[in-house]
Specification:
Helix content is 71%, strand content 0%. It is an all-alpha fold. The chain is globular, with a radius of gyration of 34 Å.
């Protein structure tokens, strides 16, 4: 596979060919060069001398970049005596075949693939890392060449045939063959950041449809053969083969079937989207039994892999079965779980334990309560789970908190619906669990070098969610235990504070215990929403609330000397849960909780409790102003304002009036200019002023004097910035900090002012007096995103016509003037940001794309605001509109297609803007140069397959507008109409020159509707009719291709589906005709899916895509 034809012709698989090639290469690459490379490899991987390793690495980098690297790599593989040199060769080859610039020719990649397979077949006992690197090389070549053809043959798709000879040879060869399939499945499943995401999804979808099920079936058959033999698992080779088979099965089941890229943090909510063509494997109970049998027959070192496969099988999508099939499948699944619990010998292994917990979690999340309780062994399984949980808690097995709550979360709904045996089961097994759960809470660690579990917000929230359910089981006992634990901890804490001999470490540890208890109390109070609560339980909640508020008074008295941020965050968590349950219109005013609060603390109603909360917020903002904690406080303050009744009560409080009249750095330090903090640390100010804005609006009405009084601190800040910018020499950092803080404050106020009256006050205040300052800031600091992004976001908020707040008088020019300012800012920023040149990939979003995204969102907001008549700009020769649109095109063309989809905020703002442009400014789109039009159409084509539903829907809408425009222009050209504009002719000419673009989008939309989990079918249906009418011949060919790819007995049914799709459809795009087509499409999709579900195999969707 060398660079010259002579060498390539010698790259045969026989020994003579290899010897000839080696001889040729030795002439090109002397032995002393080979020896030197092997020495460098040894130094790189073995030496402990950093300088030597650095020199070796530098030399090897030069080697990988050399022009003759390819030939030298083969010589290393043929003649190298060191495993490290073989590893280097395999790694270099992987880089060569992966490069996007100057890729290797197809013939060369085919030769490399064949050579690697032959090399592995003739050397089955290479070092493990060398074998792995070569298999990785094969997988990479296969993936990147998946759509490459040679003489109408997809040369890289015969993966099963490639490994057949390995599977028919020795155990070592079998391991290599199975590992090849496993690594290939994993490689194709993972997105490559160096290649577009859309290309990855096309390859992954094609592999799924053409090869994955065959690979999974092969792995199951090999596992059945292995389980039927008396394998000697003490033998390293046989043990390794079984492990690789299990990994292969898991990789098949863990495949990203529909491109959702599931997040491990949301493990319990995961559904495996098994294709319909796999139904036969899961309807056959032997597949499920195979893995349960393997679990009980293999060593504990391998059984975690079996459980991982069972986790995926338990997560298969519900729609794969009908009701009867699902009940049968669930019964087999629960029987297997029961068998594991009845024989728990392997569960003490941590890996087995963890995977078994995941299995139970998936079992509960994927099946409804009504289905679970109907399983014959459900009561027995629940009893076994409860006993196992108690045992695990007593011995302190880590991870047990994931187990029991998952299975008992249906408890609130279980009592009134189930038969008596199940109802009476829970009181006997559940009470010990909450008790043990509370007493075995995570240890509070404050020792040097050890991690505090309370710092892991995800773990804390996960456990609180579970406690909110199981804590309400036998709530009397849970509450008594909490009171006991809290009183003990609080008493110890007070004693430590009063003692002169107590250390700071002891106090911190005790504060950690109280932190955990405050979190738990908030969780169990929040859990009340899932249960039918009684007055007695409200009184119990009152006991807990009193203790937390008393602790709050104690800790507040110490804030001047010392404070514990974790404990303060726990207080906020408690306040939030209390607000959800006991503050609002739905709360009974006679609740026994408020009676208890009145008796102990003198808090008679929710207004007095709100006063306590606001006082706490002000106190914490005073002492915790410059931290993440202040941001959390502001978010909580916003949540308090969620209901109308709460806002009306809050605004009457003296503490709230104090905030409205004194929002200055003198009273709230985080509102000042702190030269030690980053500009990004001011985020909390926007949230803070959003809350203040909502409070101000309650009684503001048309009182301009009150508004001016409120804005005095911000007026002073604007005047200060204006004064600094008016001089030639000023403190740039101080000016930036003042301006950034100011615009963040204003954005919060603008967001809160949703009413026309209040927003017009703000608009008149800022325009025209202070708008030049914002424009000047963009001109000066366009290269500093920490400064420009807040300014751009403020402008985007000001032009957003939320709740129709931007309603100018008929005699007012302010709408046009506001657009001029918007156009000026977009043009200024856009032209300057493009002068930055090449930006490193890891910085491009923060430095450039984030600001561009905000500009797109700003332009979209102003174009769709309905307060500007854009026709007047061209009529009166005003270039503001043209400048903004041309700047948009310049910015768009500077962004690679891959970046448009890689960054979610950028893609959402771009596609929503494109939707507005194609709807209201299609003449502008039609006037663009051909390469720009093709860029936009390509971006729409790629966006149709995006994972973000908002992006996909926007693309459908944009495509619909374009197709409708084209159809109308073509219809007019066939009728006696006035001569069309030159732009119309040019746009039609572009489309006629590139019909493949529209045809590709037609096949993409049809592919998604038929084969994918189409989440926006209505949106997809709107452009589809226009695409069909514009490409009737292509659609007919596409239809015939799909019909012919079906099994012979299904072709007539599929043909009938397509006939019904176009039944009653006229050749126009009138609304009535579109609606009829949308209805037909719904029936079409349902009938096609039913037909494919009953088929043993489906259509290869990528025949349409390729």
């Amino acid at each position: 596979f060398m660079l010259c034809d002579v060498c390539r012709s010698c790259a045969m698989l026989n020994d003579l060919g290899r010897n000839m090639l080696s001889s040729l290469l030795v002439c090109l690459f002397p032995r002393h060069g080979l020896a030197q490379l092997e020495i460098l490899c040894k130094q790189l991987y073995e030496t402990t001398d950093t300088a030597v390793r650095h020199q070796a690495e530098k030399a090897l980098v030069e080697f990988t970049n050399s022009p003759d690297c390819l030939s030298k790599c083969q010589l290393l593989l043929e003649r190298g005596s060191s495993s490290y040199s073989q590893l280097l060769a395999a790694t270099c080859l992987s880089k060569l075949v992966s490069r996007t610039s100057n890729p290797l020719p197809l013939e060369q990649r085919i030769d490399i693939r064949n050579y690697v397979l032959n090399y592995l077949a003739t050397r089955p006992k290479l070092a493990a890392f060398v074998t792995q690197a070569l298999i990785q090389l094969y997988a990479r070549i296969t993936k990147l060449g998946w759509f490459d053809c040679q003489k109408d043959d997809y040369v890289f798709r015969n993966v099963i045939a490639d490994v057949t000879r390995f599977l028919q040879d020795s155990v070592e060869h079998c391991i290599i063959g199975v590992t090849i399939l496993s690594q290939l499945t994993n490689e194709i499943n993972q997105a490559d950041t160096t290649h577009p995401l859309t290309k990855h999804r096309k390859i992954a979808s094609s592999f799924r449809d053409s090869s994955l099920f065959d690979i999974f079936t092969l792995s199951c058959n090999l596992l059945k053969q292995a389980s039927g033999k008396n394998l000697n698992l003490n033998d390293e080779s046989q043990h390794g083969l079984l492990m690789q088979l299990l990994k292969l099965s898991y990789n098949c089941l863990n495949y990203d079937f529909i491109g959702t890229s599931t997040d491990e943090s949301s493990d319990d909510l995961c559904t495996v989207q098994i294709p319909t063509s796999w139904r036969s494997a899961f309807l056959d109970s032997s597949t499920l039994q195979l893995f349960f049998n393997l679990y009980h027959s293999i060593p504990p070192s391998l059984s975690p892999l079996v459980l991982s496969c069972l986790v995926q099988i338990a997560s298969v999508r519900r729609s794969l079965f009908n009701n009867a099939e699902r009940a049968k499948f669930l019964s087999h699944l629960v029987d297997g779980v029961k068998r594991i619990l009845a024989n728990p010998q392997c569960l003490p292994d941590p890996n087995n334990y963890h995977e078994f917990c995941r299995l139970l979690a998936r079992l509960k999340s994927n099946y409804q309560l009504g289905e679970l309780v109907k399983v014959e062994n459900y009561p027995e399984v629940i009893r076994l789970i409860a006993n196992f949980t108690v045992t695990s808690l007593q011995v302190g097995v880590p991870g047990v908190t994931l187990l029991f709550p998952t299975c008992c979360s249906p408890v609130p709904h279980l009592f009134p619906t189930c038969s008596p045996p199940v109802v009476h089961l829970f009181p006997t097994c559940s009470p010990p669990v909450p008790h043990l759960f509370l007493t075995c809470s995570p240890p509070v660690v404050h020792l040097d070098g050890l991690e505090d579990p309370l710092d892991d917000a995800g773990l804390v929230q996960q456990q609180l969610d579970q406690l909110s359910t199981i804590g309400r089981c036998e709530y009397e006992k849970t509450c008594a235990l909490l009171v006991q634990l809290f009183d003990q901890a609080a008493q110890t804490y007070q004693e430590l504070l009063q003692s002169t001999n107590s250390s700071a470490a002891d106090i911190t540890v005790q504060e950690g215990r109280l932190t955990w208890l405050v979190y738990i109390i908030g969780a169990v109070i929040g859990g009340r929403v899932s249960f039918a609560s009684t007055d007695e339980q409200d009184a119990m909640d009152g006991e807990l609330v009193c203790r937390v508020l008393q602790l709050m008074n104690l800790t507040d008295s110490r804030l001047a000397q010392a404070g514990n941020e974790r404990l303060e965050l726990a207080m906020l968590s408690f306040f939030e849960q209390f607000r959800k349950i006991y503050i609002g219109d739905q709360v009974q005013k006679s609740s026994k909780l408020y009676r208890r609060l009145s008796e102990v603390l003198g808090l008679n109603d929710e207004t007095m409790v709100l006063s306590v909360f606001i006082g706490k917020i002000i106190t914490n903002l005073k002492y915790w102003g410059h931290s993440y904690f202040s941001f959390s406080i502001c978010v909580f303050l916003l949540d308090l304002l969620f209901t109308y009744s709460s806002v009306r009560k809050l605004v009457k409080l003296s503490a709230v009036q104090f905030m409205l009249n004194n929002h200055t750095s003198e009273h709230f330090s985080f509102l000042g200019v702190n030269n030690q903090s980053n500009l990004s640390d001011m985020r909390c100010r926007t949230t803070f002023y959003t809350a203040l804005g909502r409070l101000l609006m309650v009684d503001l009405g048309e009182d301009e004097d009150q508004f001016e009084q409120f804005m005095l601190p911000l007026t002073a800040a604007f005047e200060a910035v204006a004064q600094m910018l008016s001089t030639n020499t000023f403190n740039e950092q101080e000016a930036k900090r003042t301006l950034v803080g100011l615009v963040r404050d204003l954005r919060g106020i603008a967001f809160a002012f949703n009413a026309k009256t209040s927003f017009m006050m703000l608009f008149d205040w800022i325009y025209p007096a202070y708008m030049p300052i914002l424009q000047r800031a963009i001109e000066l600091w366009y290269h500093d995103p920490a400064c420009t992004t807040p300014v751009l976001k403020l402008m985007a908020e000001l032009v957003h016509n939320r709740s129709q707040r931007l309603q100018f008088d008929v005699s007012s020019p302010n709408g046009i003037l506001l657009f001029r300012e918007t156009s000026k800012m977009i043009t200024t920023y856009g032209n300057r940001i493009l002068t930055l040149g090449e930006v490193p990939k890891d910085q491009v979003y923060g430095v450039k794309l984030k600001g561009v995204s905000v500009c797109f969102a700003m332009l979209k907001a102003v174009l769709s605001g309905n307060y500007v008549n854009f026709g007047v700009f061209r009529l009166y020769g005003d270039d503001a509109l043209d400048n903004a649109l041309q700047t948009f095109i310049k910015l768009l063309l500077s962004i690679p297609h891959s970046d448009l989809l890689d960054y979610p905020k950028l893609s959402q703002s771009f596609y929503s803007l494109l939707e507005v442009l194609t709807q209201d400014h299609m003449n502008f789109i039609a006037s663009l140069e051909p390469h720009v039009v093709m860029y936009i159409l390509s971006s729409i084509s790629e966006g149709l397959t995006a994972l973000d539903t908002m992006v996909c829907t926007g693309c459908c809408s944009s495509l619909d507008h374009i197709v409708t425009y084209l159809f109308k222009q073509l219809s007019r050209s066939t009728k006696k109409r006035p001569t069309p504009m030159a732009t119309d002719d040019r746009f039609l000419h572009i489309m006629q020159q590139h019909p493949e673009m529209i045809q590709q989008m037609l096949s993409t939309v049809l592919n998604i509707i038929i084969f994918e989990d189409c989440r926006n079918q209505w949106s997809m249906s709107r452009p589809l009719l226009g695409l069909i009418l514009l490409n009737e011949k292509y659609f007919a060919d596409l239809r015939n291709s799909i019909v012919n790819s079906q099994p012979p007995e299904k072709q007539q049914a599929m043909h009938l589906c397509f006939e019904n799709l176009m039944e009653g459809i006229e050749r126009n795009l009138l609304t009535k005709n579109r609606d009829r087509f949308t209805q037909n499409l719904s029936v079409f999709r349902r009938e096609v899916n039913d037909s494919m579900k009953n088929s043993t195999y489906g259509v290869n969707s990528n025949d349409m895509m390729s």
